[in-house]
Design a protein that fits this description.
15 helices, disordered N terminus
């Protein structure tokens, strides 16, 4: 229930863990205690007593005092003069008696309904009564919100009259109306509705939240503001929108919701692996992730194991709203950490007044949307025979020496072939390794709100099986919050959340070796999963093959398990020093413990055979912060508004890591849980820490609510930099003009809102190594005579002149609301430039080092963002709303080292680097050769110049030097899109709702390195079906070389044939729900009940031939779009239930 007071509306007056699921008895006990206490606190009586001694005090402050001492809330409209000053001196007196005295000889009447005191005007009641006496018939009904909760204090009036009243505590109304009257129903924060009463006597009216309400309160850094007063570029996502998707991670929930925010879910493994970029990449060697702030606590800025980040472990079901700060006017208040944008997350608190118990659950099944086309058993054996037939052409000497044998002669294993050499099996390894994946979510929450106090507890479980067998995710979470208004000038509170997540992962990042994904493609199709004796079959069982176990065996015997424990908490105190002046102090902490255990079984060829291998890695990431700031709000002369904020902050971050590994195990039983029984043990550890000290300020000024100015400043100091550069200053300024408030635009009734915005600011990035400016020590070994000795020495050069990366950004935007804000448009253009980038610069080898960290290089991003929200149809039974957004971003490297040398950031799968950073080009550019096709028989002479034959691959000799080498490599694609966006439609018909989300991306490429082993080389493992289009004398216009044994020589490189168009249109989410009528649920003491079904990833249109073009299989910053046998994304069918009591 929203609480506010605005003209013409009735509204409520604002009142100012170790793995809990593993100890189920304690959890149950806590819940029962909370429920008991909550119910015990809901007793209301008109005999409640108060003691008040106030003189010459505004009436609304007397109301506040009564609310503090009782459980009553006042409901009234703007016609009640709450600014009238009164004097009250009572002791232990009944509330009703106090109200009788307060309203004696006034035009105010009151009525007590439950724990609500409803105020009304006698004059309006008399007029309404007179009009009702002339009315013809009775109308009654109930007004509810989108969740089915009653809307208390909504205006229900006959259009053009004062006939009507407001809804009671159950959202109900009843009065006399003229025949065929039209009702106007309104409430602050919701879209008004006009309802025809023709042939109706009982109504149920559902009010939809006004998501484009310009007076909506939004969260900004260190405070809140009205949306209409914003001068910067930001985007909001509310609880209702977040709840539309059944997801495991925050990135999946936010994807596509805000323009300018590119979220790529790069893996289909449980939990996914989201890459989040706000307005492009701003740095090369340090993080490009946005800053995450949860309830005022800055999350640890750490890259965790196997491509995860701290935000992945936040329970998305605990999130109430998200604000994305994009331009410098919005982010500069976070100074050195705002260059990549800021995401502010507000978690859920109590719902409404009194006690609420809520249970949310869902069950889902994930299926494989598409299969890869690979050779079946017959096709593979024919291909092997064709390779043998071509061996003489490509290796005449080897053919003459008998290096090649007829493959038909080796098909004698009775476990695999019949007596005629025909295969006994035709195994589809995708069917054997990929399953229908079950998932489930359970979350129960209990909250209680009384006056200015609220508290609550929630516990949750998320279990998700992966599509690939043996992979899974289990997350147990718990959260407690408390807010208490101890006095009229002091409010305290805090929250504490804990999560334990266990995952078994089968997709190794940046690994081109033997993985489950690779073996799904390359396992021989004529092998069974197991032989009759129960042993696994593998490629090495068939002579001449490249070894490798089946994907089923790799999934079972290669055990990579990750356990993560996170704790996020804060405590705060708000002190009102005087009217308009508030001091806030917040202490927050974020602790992340992560343990990854790995064991490769002794039978896994090319992985850990014959001795097995195991390792355990423990990482601990701690951060705490202490922030204090003063905020002053003042309005004066009815035309000036001022908000000033000043504060200071301290933050400490430390990280520690310890690794142990061993090989040489006699048995697989202990896995990674007993490294001591292995041989060749190794161990390593590391630790670092740094601190930040900051001073910040912001001023907001408004003149006549038309001309708005925002200025921020932050001084950040970091221990990472040298003494002379330890502090840096980050200012910003933003201005806005609300043109719609000008007199010359008032006659244009179609324009309900128009605001022009502009801003400029400077932000920074300090996420380099903790000791980059100081150099570092490391251990080394050397040989003295015949003895090896260990020592400690300088491992990297110090640079005391090292300083912050800085990003300047200019932004211009236009907000337009049309037709009473039924159409809302937002447009922004921006230019970002990063300078003083932290890069490794080469130094003379005579120094004993190869590089030093320096401030060199620059990069730019420029772009355009557009979004439109429309209310297409809105009436009493049917609502249709649409949202469309599109974002363009162009990245360009402006300068690198002094010599402008290229940088090769990796990954280095198959070649020295799969991508390149080059001046004048975007980061994330793919680097390789250009494949022109294959040499034809007419080009035999020219092919011979390169020692090649017709049927071999033909690469472009860029410099015509007669050889193919690194000088012929070039930029062949990019993983970063030119543009992206979403198109969403929501429909509501009576109690039914439907949401359809579409996501699109264009201008991006995918580098599919799996083509190296599944297409370029053949005959030693299974291949893609595309090899059936290989070169033959009759088929020479092809990109695939003539089939031959690998021993006869073949060409494979990172080249343009590996690049595919990664553009796509995806059916992101489809949800159908039904909310049960409150008149039905109330009979069973249920406040709200909704059931729904959804399909995620319900279609995909793309030219990419792999599983999914939204992919990255490496941990490097610019590896977006690089894949090598990635984890497929599921199509997930879900049913769910939301119920509250």
């Amino acid at each position: 229930m929203k609480k506010n007071t605005l003209q013409g509306h009735y509204c409520l007056k604002s009142p100012n863990l170790k793995q809990l699921f593993r100890i189920m008895r304690i959890t149950t006990f806590l819940l029962l205690v909370c429920i008991f206490c909550s119910f015990a606190s809901t007793t209301h009586s008109q005999n409640m007593r108060v003691s008040i001694s106030k003189s010459s005090t505004q009436l609304n402050k007397i109301f506040s005092e009564i609310e503090k001492q009782t459980e009553y809330l006042f409901v009234y409209n703007n016609q009640i003069d709450v600014n009238r000053k009164v004097s009250v001196k009572v002791k232990d007196k009944q509330v009703s008696q106090v109200l009788d005295e307060l309203f004696e000889d006034t035009n105010i009447e009151y009525m007590i309904q439950g724990n609500h005191i409803v105020l009304s005007s006698k004059e309006n009641n008399i007029i309404a009564l007179q009009q009702q006496q002339q009315a013809g018939r009775q109308i009654s009904g109930v007004v509810v919100d989108g969740n089915g909760e009653p809307v208390i204090g909504a205006n229900v009036l006959v259009k053009g009259t004062t006939i009507g009243n407001m809804t009671d505590v159950d959202g109900k109304f009843a009065f006399e109306i003229p025949d065929n009257a039209t009702l106007v129903v309104s409430y602050i924060g919701y879209l008004s509705q006009e309802i025809s009463t023709r042939n109706k006597s009982i109504l149920k009216i559902t009010l939809q939240e006004d998501t484009q309400n310009i007076d909506e309160i939004v969260v900004v850094g260190y405070g809140t503001m009205k949306k209409s007063d914003l001068t910067g570029a930001s985007g909001s996502v509310k609880e209702d929108a977040l709840a539309q998707r059944t997801v495991t991670s925050f990135g999946q929930a936010l994807s596509g919701r805000v323009s300018g925010v590119n979220i790529s879910t790069n893996s289909g493994r449980p939990g996914g692996r989201a890459s989040i970029r706000i307005r492009g990449n701003s740095s090369i060697s340090v993080t490009n992730d946005p800053l995450y702030v949860v309830d005022g606590v800055i999350l640890n800025v750490s890259t965790l194991t196997n491509g995860t980040s701290p935000i992945d472990y936040l329970n998305p079901n605990d999130i109430k709203s998200v604000e994305v700060l994009k331009d410098a006017s919005a982010t500069a208040i976070y100074g050195a950490r705002g260059a990549n944008g800021v995401i502010l997350i507000t978690t859920k608190k109590g719902e409404g007044m009194g006690t609420t118990i809520r249970y949310d659950t869902d069950f889902g099944i994930g299926v494989l949307p598409k299969k890869l086309d690979v050779l079946n058993a017959s096709e593979f054996l024919q291909l092997e025979e064709l390779a043998y037939a071509n061996a003489q052409k490509f290796d005449p000497d080897g053919w003459k020496n008998g290096s090649y044998k007829d493959p038909k002669l080796k098909r004698t294993d009775p476990r695999l072939f019949d007596s005629n050499g025909r295969p006994l099996y035709d195994t589809d390894w995708q069917d054997e390794t990929i399953r229908n994946a079950f998932s489930q979510t359970h979350q129960i929450s209990v909250s209680n709100t009384k006056g200015g106090d609220s508290y609550g507890l929630s516990v949750g479980f998320r279990g998700e099986d992966g599509l690939i067998i043996e992979s899974y995710l289990k997350r147990y979470s718990a959260r407690f919050f408390m807010d208490s208004e101890l006095t009229k000038w002091l409010k305290v509170g805090g929250s504490l959340s804990y999560a334990y997540q266990q995952e078994r992962q089968t997709d190794s990042m940046g690994d081109g070796g033997i993985t489950v994904g690779r073996q799904i493609v390359e396992a021989l199709p004529f092998l069974p999963v197991r032989y009759e004796d129960g042993t696994f079959a593998g490629n090495n069982d068939y002579p001449g093959m490249e070894g490798g176990n089946s994907p089923v065996q790799v999934a079972k015997d290669r055990n990579y398990t990750m356990e993560t424990q996170t704790m996020l908490g804060n405590v705060y105190a708000n002190i009102t020093l005087m009217p308009g002046l508030e001091f806030r102090s917040v202490l927050g902490a974020n602790i992340i413990n992560q343990k990854s255990g790995y064991y490769g079984g002794r039978q896994l060829i090319w992985i850990s055979s014959p001795n097995g291998s195991a390792s355990v890695v423990n990482n601990r990431n701690n951060s705490w912060q202490f922030e204090n700031y003063l905020t002053y709000n003042k309005e004066f002369a009815r035309m000036h508004s001022f908000t000033g904020m000043v504060g200071l902050s301290w933050q400490h971050v430390d990280n520690a890591s310890a690794t142990a590994s061993a090989t040489g195990f006699e048995d697989d039983f202990f896995q990674y849980n007993n490294l001591g029984i292995g041989t060749s043990p190794t161990a390593a550890s590391s630790a670092n820490a740094y601190g930040l000290n900051s001073y910040f300020a912001r001023v907001n000024y408004g003149f006549k609510s038309k001309y708005l100015l925002t200025a921020t400043a932050r001084l950040d100091g970091s221990s990472k930099f040298g003494q002379s550069n330890r502090y840096a200053f980050f200012p910003s300024v933003g201005a806005a003009w609300r043109i719609s408030e000008e007199a010359f635009l008032k006659p244009v009734t179609a324009i309900s809102n128009m605001k022009l915005r502009a801003s400029y600011g400077l932000t920074g990035n300090s996420e380099t190594g903790a000791y980059a400016s100081q150099g570092s020590l490391g251990n080394y070994t050397t040989v003295f005579g015949s003895s090896k000795a260990s020592g400690i020495g300088v491992s990297s050069l110090a640079n005391p002149d090292l300083k912050w990366e800085k990003t300047s950004q200019v932004n211009a935007g236009l907000d337009i609301g049309l037709l009473d804000n039924r159409i809302n448009l937002e447009m922004d253009v921006y230019y970002k430039k990063t300078t003083d980038m932290l890069l490794n610069a080469p130094v003379p080898a005579s120094s004993g080092f190869t590089s030093i960290t320096k401030n060199i290089g620059s990069m730019s991003n420029k772009g355009f963002e557009f979004s439109i929200n429309t209310v297409n149809i809105r009436n009493e039974n049917f609502t249709w709303e649409s949202t469309f957004n599109i974002s363009f971003n162009k990245n360009k490297v402006l300068a690198l080292s002094e010599g402008g040398d290229d940088i090769y950031p990796g990954p280095d799968i198959l070649s020295s680097s799969n991508n390149i950073i080059r001046v004048g080009e975007p980061v994330g550019s793919f680097y390789g050769y250009k494949r022109l096709g294959t040499w034809s028989t007419d080009e035999a002479a020219e092919a011979a110049k390169y020692n090649l034959r017709p049927g071999d691959l033909k690469l472009w000799d860029r410099n015509n030097d007669g050889q193919i080498n690194d000088l012929d490599r070039m930029i062949i694609g990019k993983g970063i899109p030119d543009g992206y966006g979403t198109f969403s439609n929501s429909f509501r018909y009576k109690n039914f709702d439907l949401v359809v989300d579409l996501q699109y991306m264009f201008g991006n490429d995918v580098m599919d390195i799996s083509k190296h082993s599944a297409e370029d080389r053949t005959g030693i493992a299974n291949s893609y079906k595309t090899v059936l289009n290989a070169w033959t004398p009759e088929n020479q216009n092809t990109m695939i070389a003539q089939i031959r044994p690998t021993g006869a020589g073949y060409t494979t490189n990172i080249d343009s044939h590996f690049i595919e168009d990664g553009s796509f249109l995806r059916g992101k989410n489809l949800v159908v729900g039904y909310t049960f009528p409150s008149e039905l649920t109330n009979k069973f003491y249920v406040k709200y009940l909704r059931i729904y079904g959804s399909v995620q990833n319900f279609f995909l249109i793309t030219k990419y031939n792999g599983y999914d073009p939204e992919v990255s299989d490496a941990t490097q910053t610019f590896a977006q779009g690089i894949t090598v046998f990635g984890y497929p994304k599921p199509r997930t069918f879900t049913i769910g239930l939301n119920v509250s009591f």
